[in-house]
Amino acid sequence: MTENASNTNNHRVRHDVSVFTNDDVHWFNEGTHYQLYEKLGSQPMQVDGEQGTYFAVWAPNAESVFVTGDFNHWTKDSHPLQLRGQSGIWEGWVSGISRGAVYKYAIYSARNAYQVEKADPYAFMHETPPRTGSVVWDLEYAWKDHEWMAKRHQYNHLQAPMAVYEMHVGSWRRNPEHDAPLTYRELAEPLAEYLNWIGYTHVEFLPVMEHPFYGSWGYQTTGFFAPTSRYGTPQDFMYLVDYLHKHNIGVILDWVPSHFPTDEHGIGYFDGTHLYEHSDPRQGIHQDWDSCIFNYGRNEVRNFLMSSALYWLERYHVDGLRVDAVASMLYLDYSRKQGEWIPNKYGGRENLEAIHFLRTFNSEVFKRHADVQTFAEESTAWPMVSRPTYVGGLGFGLKWDMGWMHDTLAYMSHDPVFRKYHHNQLTFRTMYAGSENFILPLSHDEVVHGKASLLGKMPGDDWRKFANLRLLFAYMYSQPAKKLMFMGGEFGQWREWAHDSSLDWHLTDSPNHKGLMKLVRSLNLVYRYEPALHQYDLDGKGYQWIDSNDSENSILSYLRLGESGHKGAVVVVLNFTPVPHYNYRIGVPTHGHWRELINTDAKEFGGGGHGNLGGIQSTPIPCHGRTASINIVVPPLGGLYLKHEPPA
User: Fold this and answer.
1) Is residue 294 within 8 Å of 260, Cβ to Cβ?
2) Residue 647 has what pLDDT?
3) Is 288 a catalytic residue?
């Protein structure tokens, strides 16, 4: 990208050109300017008929700021920007610079003899790492997803079925010819085809924002307004979103406003001062990740983050943002010992500025885009994370149920002979399930760093491992909550996820793995098309126990209910031991025929074929407080969904 490299004298600087009005400056310093991507950064534009680029950067404590790049052979002091009053914004228009030019800001501070070259915090594109320059770019794209955008509220509202496929762009599939990640455009068609076949409603991408270290999976973000150029241009990523929308798949982005890396070209110590982060390491450094923590009390920093969030929703048409590491934002003593943190003004450990920011974030997102969703990865007992701000909540649409994930995986890791002693790890969730709008995650964090893959976590021989994993998925899909699964889990990848290689798709040629994938497809379709399994996902009236106390047999049985009540009820029976039960009686709410919707032990899923020949007739024998009951075969390490069918 050197098309603009030329004699330095051919690129004049004008300081009488600005896209900032006085109102913009006021809102920026006040902390209420949420579309700064239209004002700061590099904006290609013509002035008096001449092509050039307007540059603007916030560096209030700098003595001088210059634009340096391939257009001036990286001369550091030939193209100065000018300070805009007391705003802290340095700006200027440079002639002859257009899309594709690579640049940085050369920043000087006399206060501490500080000199540095910084990437543009608001750039729409950056060079492909390990190079660190910013690239002048535009956001022109002819969107074709008008039909999706008009109806996406149907897919994103809280009563709709939501089955999310979490994935890392660079390691889902790779180009077999040269073992390179698929580009955004190469990914679009096979991903849409696969997600439509297997039945997911949404895809959630691990952070696509530019990041210098590939092994951070995107969670160490430097480009908060730029999709990583490893896989293509901004327009290429727009094409991916557009294509998925045209195939009725929602797109959620992982977004990281909790911390940022310390790389020299990033926003840390930006102008010779701790501008975006706190100066005191007890507030400004995250010890676990060796990264900087945003100063949420600073107006301009909140502007930066709010503008980033709205940018992805507005310019890339994404349907939701999953906010990473919310717990680390809420608590001043997060992962710190006594004496390593500073209390708030009331002496408490709550981060008041971060709480204010999160409430503002959710309020503004839903005010401007009522048809999207926000998700909190929050692992503590902080109250009302997914309740409206006007009743004191943080305002998120949904919260990851981390407790369910840890309890369930701990339970499933036990040998079945001991599970009866841990029955409460399954039943405890009903005590709090209605306290938040939950989504159940089997996420990337659980299949890395020696934790083993989902299949690898299951006890026993191969038969038991696959049966346990099929049972786990049946349990997950029958719980009242939205669903999320990380890529590879759906077909039972044996090894842990590795960010620099493809998933082991060859496994799907074997019967067990193929059967598991067919089960996930069936679970997705039944979940989506049976109202009882999703309408009251977030409401206690959608769930009734049949028997929660059969710990001796490690069996759970319960009802899922939709708006039609018992008429459309689904009975769920789950057996967490390898012992089949041939005369297991349970009470049901309605007389008649109960058809098997799902049997995880079906041969098509890789099971042994224990079941009820497709369904069973109830009898007028009272059981579990109900006047009707069914006497069923419960398969070993198996799950059943049965639905009442009215007489013809």
Assistant:
1) yes
2) 67
3) no
Among this protein's residues, is 377 annotated catalytic?
A: yes
Cβ-based neighbours of 551, under 8 Å, separated by 6 or more: 420, 421, 423
Q: What pLDDT does residue 17 have? A: 92
Q: How far, in Å, CA of 375 to CA of 537, rounded?
A: 15
Active-site annotation holder among 324, 353, 378, 407: 324
pLDDT in tens, 316-328: 999 999 999 999 9
- pLDDT value of position 648: 57
Assign residue 551 a region: left if phi > 0, alpha if psi is -120 to 50, beta otherwise?
alpha
- The percentage of the chain sitting over the pLDDT mark of 90, rounded to a whole number, equals 94
The b/e string for 456-468 (b: 16+ C-beta within 10 A; e otherwise) is ebbeeeeebbbbb
pLDDT tens digit sequence for 291-338? 999 999 999 999 999 999 999 999 999 999 999 999 999 999 999 999
How does DSSP classify residue 601?
Answer: T
User: For residue 2, with 0-12 CB atoms within 10 Å meaning exposed, 13-18 middle and 19 or more buried, which class applies?
Assistant: exposed
pTM comes to 0.95
Q: What's the rounded Cα separation, in Å, for the pair 64 and 82?
A: 8
pLDDT of residue 4: 37
Tell me the Cα Rg of the chain: 27
Active-site residue, selected from the candidate residues 271, 377, 378, 601: 377
DSSP letters along 345-400, please?
TTS-SB-HHHHHHHHHHHHHHHHH-TTSEEEE---S--TTTTS-GGGTS---SEEE
CATH number at residue 32: 2.60.40.10
DSSP assignment of 198-213: HT-SEEEESP-EE-S-
Domain at 563, CATH number: 2.60.40.1180
How large is the angle between the packed helices 462-478 and 402-413, nearest 10 degrees? 150
> Rounded to whole angstroms, what are the CA distances from 490 to 228, 246, 450?
27, 24, 20
List the helix and strand counts (H, then E) for the chain: 14, 32
Which residue do the tokens 């590939």 mark?
Answer: 214
Q: Which of 104, 135, 166 is the last residue of a domain?
A: 135
The tokens describing 488, both together, are 């590879």
The neighbour count for residue 322, using CB atoms within 10 Å, is: 28
> Cα 11–17–19 angle (5° rounding)?
120
**Does 627 map to a domain?**
yes
pLDDT for position 6:
35
Burial of residue 21 (CB within 10 Å: 0-12, 13-18, 19+) is exposed
Asked, for residue 32, whether it belongs to a domain, the answer is yes
Which parts of the chain sit beneath pLDDT 50? 1-7
Q: Backbone phi, then psi, for 132, in 5-degree steps? A: -125, 10
Dihedral of the CA atoms 535, 390, 258, 407 (nearest 10)? -40
In angstroms, the CA 544 to CA 56 distance is 58
193 CB-contact burial (10 Å; exposed 0-12 / middle 13-18 / buried 19+): exposed
624: left (phi over 0), alpha (psi -120 to 50) or beta: left
Last residue in a domain, options 118, 135, 152: 135
Domain extent, residue 17, equals 8-135
Q: Which residues are within 8 A (CB) of 508 and not within 5 positions of it... i.e. 6 or more apart?
A: 491, 514, 517
Task: Look at residue 21 and tell me if it is in a domain.
Answer: yes
- Residue 259 domain-assigned (yes or no): no
Total of domains in the chain? 2
- Contact status, residue 386 vs residue 537, Cβ threshold 8 Å: no
Beta pairing, strands 565-575 & 639-645: antiparallel
**Cα–Cα distance list, 368 to 39, 310, 371, 399 (Å):** 19, 9, 9, 21
Beta pairing partners, 485:
165, 442
